[in-house]
Design a protein that fits this description.
heterodimer; A: about 400 residues; alpha/beta; about 20% strand
Chain lengths: ~400, ~80
């Protein structure tokens, strides 16, 4: 037992359905949540999950976040009375890439057709990017630090890192962290498509030679962070340790990653250093693995340059092959499956990977799930997230013993 | 086309709006306070927009802010006909 920060609850709403374990089990079994080139949460029913009052006061991204938070808090035993914590010492930080864009485009339509007097009074509180965090705090009466991180596809991982720091700095005893995104509206789909960022074929096949862009997805992931001693003292089940966080910037281009993955490399090394885990002790990499030509090459180079000679022996897989790219929620759901992979001692597979590309020669776990090799110490993993704007956020997790 | 304003048509429209706000039918009485129904100032602005659309009665946030009960809202709309 230690003073480490641990993950004691996880919750998710993803294209594979509701539930964090459902997400992990589905991915492990090679299921795909992608249909017609999109990772939609097709079965999500906000009114059934939240009731009319709450559902109508939340954009779809916040609805996802609220449902994922419900699951994570219940699992951690923080549902009813903050689990014995002073609720003013429990905070909420969720990331999002875009925020309530569905609300925004609908309100713009009302403005265009009906004039300014008709704009719905809930437009601003629903579209604001901090609504997922604020709404979770409000619903559960949590009075600790609360704000949102906005760093495109790294936002979920930044939120988790910020939550880790809030606990380490003594600003909070427990933090509800994660990410939420619901951006499958025409505007963002068209915006990504004209940049040639999304797959024309509608196929997510990270690291494969035929990859032609990412597949947009939607959903949310929420984790509960607290000190290991406190979690065990409350009788909570510890899923994994959150041991380190590294954040850097490429400072190279507004959308393209540094071609050698230099910012990513520095973020990986910083996360490992923060965790006290040497590069040679990494047992699993949950890749950002978007299925774009540029990311998967730069990320592979970053992994090779940061993890050294052993890089080729470490299983590297991408959840985006199963559910698409959840943008600001991606880092959160990926941290969740990384924690569950450590708990299970298994690396889930990269789906659709068939054709290797020259230079992309890591072990992408193409042939189904693989047991992680044990070396007589707690398993360690990193989860990579990189965002437009050059933002890099890497988390280091370790198996809980 | 605006509807004719009578206490009945306004009551019907207000109740229909409250239903979309998540108020249960059995809670809807003239005496119920907006506070007890958890209908806040943002909802009341939306109610004003609905009333304006249906009856052509222009109300702004300041009009709505002083309302206490559902009956107050109905009476105000009827009174402004």
């Amino acid at each position: 037992m230690s003073d480490a920060v641990v993950i004691s609850g996880v919750g998710a709403v993803t294209p594979l359905g509701a539930g964090a374990q459902r997400l992990f089990d589905g991915w492990l079994a090679g299921e795909s949540g992608i249909e017609d080139g999109l990772g939609r949460c097709a079965d999500f029913d906000p009114v059934a999950a939240l009731g009319v009052k709450t559902a109508r006061r939340a954009d779809r991204c916040t609805q996802f976040a609220l449902v994922a938070a419900e699951e994570a808090l219940a699992q951690a035993g923080l549902g009813a009375d903050a689990g014995g914590y002073d609720p003013n010492r429990v905070g909420v930080i969720l990331g999002t890439g875009i925020g309530g864009i569905d609300t925004l485009v609908r309100a713009q339509h009302v403005l265009d057709t009906g004039g300014p007097q008709r704009v719905p009074p809930l437009s601003v509180p629903l579209m604001m990017a901090n609504a997922p965090s604020g709404s979770i705090a409000l619903r559960h009466g949590l009075g600790g630090p609360s704000y949102s991180t906005v760093s495109a596809c790294a936002a979920g991982a930044h939120a988790i890192g910020a939550g880790l720091r809030a606990i380490q700095a003594g600003d909070a005893d427990a933090m509800i962290v994660g990410g939420a995104e619901a951006a499958l509206v025409e505007l963002s789909r068209a915006g990504f498509a004209v940049m040639d960022a999304t797959s024309r074929l509608g196929v997510s096949r990270p690291f494969d030679a035929r990859r032609d862009g990412f597949v947009m997805g939607e959903g949310a992931g929420v984790l509960v962070l607290e000190r290991e001693t406190a979690a065990r003292g409350r009788g909570a089940r510890v899923i994994a340790r959150l041991s380190g966080f590294g954040a850097t910037s490429d400072a190279h281009h507004i959308t393209a990653p540094h071609p050698q993955g230099d910012g990513a490399r520095r973020a990986i090394l910083r996360a490992l250093q923060d965790a006290g885990v040497p590069p040679e002790a990494v047992d699993y990499v949950n890749a950002h693995g978007t299925s774009t030509p540029l990311n998967d090459r730069a990320e592979t180079l970053a992994l090779k340059s940061s993890l050294g000679d052993r890089a080729q022996e470490i299983p590297v897989s991408s959840l985006k092959s199963s559910i698409g790219h959840l943008l600001g929620a991606a880092g959160a759901v990926e941290a969740i499956v990384t924690a569950l992979a450590l708990q299970a001692g298994v690396a889930p597979p990269t789906l659709n990977y068939e054709e290797p590309e020259s230079g992309l020669d890591l072990d992408y776990v193409a042939d189904g799930p693989r047991a992680l090799k044990r070396n007589g110490r707690p398993l360690a993993a990193i989860s990579n997230s990189f965002g437009f704007g050059g933002h890099n956020a890497v988390l280091c997790l370790q198996e809980a013993r | 086309m605006s509807q004719t304003i009578t206490p009945e048509t306004v009551e019907q429209a207000v109740y229909a709006a409250l239903k979309t706000f998540g108020v249960e039918p059995h809670q809807m009485t003239r005496e119920a306070t907006f506070e007890s129904l958890e209908v806040d100032s943002l909802d009341l602005v939306e109610l004003a927009q609905i009333v304006q659309e249906e009856f052509g009665v222009k109300l702004d946030a300041a009009h709505m802010a002083g309302l206490n009960t559902v009956g107050d809202a109905i009476d105000m709309v009827v009174g402004r006909a």
